[in-house]
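Run log // design_07
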């Protein structure tokens, strides 16, 4: 299925997708790190990105790209050789460049030293601690570039989810689409701690976030939209039935998530369950409990999808440009 929403990709993207069996056979796990501990260290590395973001003020795309770099890096390198914190800082530094939002290395080193309590060293770029950490950061970044084979193209599910939501709910339902987009965005950001980017295409991850958002908002997840010809006929009928002097409604066609994202229900089900299951790693017990309560709603939404027929779709491809935020 060819999606209507597309983002620029690289011909090497396929090398970064793994099976579940391969995911539990990473270099770290082969060297004795348990699966649970490996997942925890991945999550700690991603949470480190959020702490870097606060003082350095970068867009969400930088954090998402850096998280992807971390997950890809640890599929080829061991945590026993590279500390997750050093890898996180290097991924952040590299993502700032690849997302065209560079930050001076001096600012990053200073921020890291400040958070570790080395205030004097952070304020003096000629101090031994500052110089040593700067060298470590450069060395880790170089290692990451080699490990990633200089493939720095990362497609973001965040913008796909937002664009899809605004086309799945239009007209008088536009406000619903805005609410769904905001909640889906939060699910996507929370899920960065998980290696979902190694299992699923960004379109699948975006679709999963939309389903979870609908479940949280108690909004039915649409099975599929009517065909464009049927929607046009209904709109023409509404115009004919409009009272004299009454402004007829604008024609704003609704699109379905399948045609927008090119995702099948089976793919969506696995990704949605994985995304929700990731909250078991939440540091806040309340968040984990809230996710557990959401589980029955998600399963019901998936069951409803399995019963729904797939109508024919028609339309043209639409390229998506990621807006600045």
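design_07 sequence
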């Amino acid at each position: 299925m060819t999606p209507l929403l597309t983002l620029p990709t690289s011909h090497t993207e396929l090398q970064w997708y793994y099976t579940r069996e391969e995911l539990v056979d990473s270099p770290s796990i082969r060297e004795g790190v348990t699966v649970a501990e490996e997942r925890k260290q991945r999550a700690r590395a991603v949470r480190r990105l959020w702490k870097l973001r606060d003082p350095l003020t970068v867009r969400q795309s930088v954090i998402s790209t850096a998280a992807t770099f971390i997950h890809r890096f640890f599929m080829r390198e061991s945590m026993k050789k590279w500390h997750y914190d050093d890898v996180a800082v290097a991924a952040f530094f590299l993502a700032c460049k690849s997302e065209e939002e560079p930050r001076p290395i001096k600012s990053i080193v200073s921020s890291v030293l400040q958070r570790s309590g080395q205030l004097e060293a952070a304020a003096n770029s000629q101090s031994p601690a500052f110089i040593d950490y700067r060298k470590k950061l450069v060395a880790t970044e170089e290692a990451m570039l080699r490990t990633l084979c200089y493939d720095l193209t990362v497609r973001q599910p965040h913008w796909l989810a937002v664009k899809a939501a605004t086309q799945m709910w239009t007209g008088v339902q536009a406000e619903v689409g805005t609410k769904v987009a905001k909640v889906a965005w939060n699910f996507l950001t929370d899920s960065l701690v998980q290696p979902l980017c190694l299992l699923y295409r960004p379109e699948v991850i975006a679709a999963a976030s939309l389903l979870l958002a609908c479940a949280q908002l108690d909004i039915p997840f649409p099975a599929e939209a009517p065909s464009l010809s049927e929607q046009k006929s209904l709109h023409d009928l509404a115009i004919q039935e409009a009272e004299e002097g009454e402004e007829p409604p604008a024609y704003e066609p609704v699109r379905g998530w399948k045609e927008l994202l090119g995702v099948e229900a089976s793919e969506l089900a696995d990704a949605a369950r994985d995304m929700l299951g990731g909250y078991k790693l939440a540091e806040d017990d309340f968040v984990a409990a809230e996710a557990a309560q959401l589980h029955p709603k998600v399963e019901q939404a998936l069951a409803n999808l399995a019963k729904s027929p797939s109508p024919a779709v028609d339309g043209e491809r639409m390229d998506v440009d990621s807006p600045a935020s």
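The two ends are 30 Å apart (CA to CA).
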